[in-house]
Write a structure and sequence with these properties.
This protein is an alpha+beta fold and about 150 residues long. It is about 30% helix and about 30% strand. It has four helices and five strands; from the N terminus they run βααββββαα. Strands 1, 2, 3, 4 and 5 form a five-stranded antiparallel sheet that branches. Helix 2 crosses helix 3.
Length: about 150
Amino acid sequence: MRLTRLTRVTNTYITTTEFKAFAKIVSSEDLQTILNTAIDKIEAITNISLQAGTFRLESDSSLEHKLYYNVSEVTSVTNDLGESVSYTLNSLKNRIYLTDESELIISYSVTTTEDLCKSLKHYVYEYASALYDGQDGMIVLNKVPRNIC
C-alpha cells in the first residue's frame, strides 16, 4: 500500500511566520519545507490532517481499505485497469468496503479545522524547531498522541 499527497493547501492555522516567532529564527532558509516536513510527520503519527489537500491511495487486494486523515470526500475508486469500482464508505469516512477483492487506486480529499490545528500546533513547531537545529526530534515525537482518529 502506498499513500501519496497530491496537493497541499496553504494552512492559515500553522504558518511560517508563527513558526519563526516560536523558534526565534532570524533567517528564512527553507522554513516552509521544514514546516511541511514537520506537519507531515505529526499527521502520520496522529492520523489527523493539518492541511487540506488531496491524496491517492494505492491499495492491495482486500475487501476493506483504510483511509487516512480527515476525509472530506472520496473522488474516485478505480481498479488497476482504471475502471470505476463500486464501494461503500462508512459513516466516519475512514474505511471503504468492496464486494469483490481487487487492487485499488482511491483518490480523496481531506480537510482540517482550526481546533485540530490548535491542538497539535505546538508539536509541529517543536518538531520543526528540532529539524531546523539539525536534531532528529525523537524527544518531541515521543510526546505526540498516537492515532487520534
